[in-house]
Amino acid sequence: MLDLRLIREEKERVAAALARRGDDPAVLDRVLDLDARRRATQAQMDERRAEQKRLSKDVPQLSGGERVETLARLKTLSDDVAAVEKEQASLAAELNALMLDIPNVPDPTAPEGAGDDANVELRRWGLPQAFEFPVRDHVEIGASLGIIDVERGARTSGSRFYYLKGAAVLLELALVRYALDRLQQEGFTPVLPPVLVRREAMEGTGFLPTDEAQIYRTADDDLYLVGTSEVPLAALHMGETLNAGDLPLRYAGISTCFRREAGTYGKDTRGIFRVHQFDKVEMFSFTTPDTSSDEHEFLLQIEEWLLQGLELPYRVVNIAAGELGASAAKKYDCEAWLPGQADYRELTSCSNCTDYQARRLNCRFKGDGNPAFVHTLNGTAISTARWLIALLETHQRADGGVTIPAALRPFFGADHIAPPK
User: Fold this and answer.
1) CATH fold group of domain 4-101
2) What distance in Å separates the CA atoms of residue 342 and residue 130, rounded to the nearest whole number?
3) How far apart, in whole angstroms, are the C-alpha atoms of residue 379 and residue 348?
4) What is the rounded distance in angstroms from the CA atom of residue 379 to the CA atom of residue 283?
5) Which of 166, 284, 305, 359 is found 20 to 30 A from 404 (Cα to Cα)?
6) Is 386 considered catalytic here?
7) How far apart are CA 260 and CA 365, in angstroms?
8) Catalytic residue (choose from 20, 21, 182, 259)
């Protein structure tokens, strides 16, 4: 959520920022109108309550007609206050709903425009492999090794579900441990968070109301299944004031994630690239405003280290303002080369959400001065389904087996997945 004072004092700057995202800045006029009306009703209410207080003190000393008149005036004031309170609550609710819909202000270094073509490639690492045999995609590899079963997953749960079996299960667990080993070295605390959260957590991280179509919701308990452990990690310190000396606080969330993938009909339907359920290790940082930019680069550095360790060629992309999620002021994607698609596809992303989520979650820090809102950042360490694709396709062998990169072998327990018999 944006600072309402920022909109009041720098409306033109916020309007220009919304225009960069492709959003209509006219919403700011509605916000300022509601804000002015809400503050006016507050002034009316304060005035009437002050008169109530003054007259109530006079009543014991009054008698006769003067007492009757004063009591009648107090009744009128009480009715007026109730009416103004009701009006103010309505205005506040309408204002809050509008504010929840306004996205974060893009960082000046986020590229202009919208669409994939507007994203700016920053660098590449590694070269796509030149295979001396026909390249197979992860679906063919997984089926031949008996470790990925998309057909039975669809039979059990519908499209975009799958079974992992045998070596694929061990490989996924190895990926999790590989990421956690590095993250613990960097001061991240591993967390197994709840994956069912209340609406306040979803709203607090900016996934509601903008991404409601992508979220699974339970009918009986009014709880939401998270699409990333960013949500419960951000809510971990909801309503708290942190000690500046303890920042940055860094967490590594390990969770199953659920996404409806609404609006992606017919897109990436083959295999396990775009699915409804997957596991992920998510990095999350609480830090101060003056260090959040450096923290963002730090998260990106970790993502690149993880990719390089598994010998996965990739490129880093700075995401355009028009492609940013509601909470993000700036976002980097790391796109790995997938031989089965002969293209670079997103494996990780990391975002600086500045104080946007912290305002919604009321998470502050206190040092020498007055409490201020923290900055929050998130980044993918390992999204297991997509990393499995990259590993199987990149390190496939002519005999049908798969080589395990050296950095992963201590966690996997072998140097390869044996070819099918």
Assistant:
1) Helix Hairpins (1.10.287)
2) 11
3) 7
4) 5
5) 284
6) yes
7) 35
8) 259
User: CA-CA distance, 280 to 230, in Å (whole number)?
Assistant: 10
66 is catalytic: no
One-letter amino acid of 317: V
Instruction: From the candidates 94, 186, 200, 346, give the one annotated as an active-site residue.
Output: 346
Q: Which fold has domain 116-417?
A: BirA Bifunctional Protein; domain 2 (3.30.930)
Q: How many CA atoms lie within 13 A of 369 on its CB side?
A: 4
Cis bond upstream, residue 405 (ω within 30): no
Question: Phi and psi of 240, rounded to 5°?
Answer: -110, 155
Distance CA 266, CA 269 (A): 6
Q: How do the domains of the chain map onto residue ranges?
A: 4-101, 116-417
**Roughly how many angstroms between the first and final C-alpha of the chain, as a whole number?**
57
Low-confidence residues of the chain: pLDDT under 70: none
> Quick check: is 323 catalytic?
no
β-pair partners for 366: 243
Q: What are the tens digits of pLDDT across the range 188-223? A: 999 999 999 999 999 999 999 989 999 999 989 999
pTM over 0.85: yes
Instruction: Quote the radius of gyration of the chain (alpha carbons, Å).
Output: 27
Q: How far is CA 419 from CA 119, 145, 379, 387, 411, in A?
A: 39, 7, 34, 20, 20
Question: Nearest Cα to 386, choosing from 334, 308, 319?
Answer: 334
Q: Distance between CA 324 and CA 335 in Å, rounded?
A: 16
Q: Which listed residue (349, 360, 364, 393) is catalytic?
A: 349
In the 8-state DSSP scheme, what is residue 208?
A: T
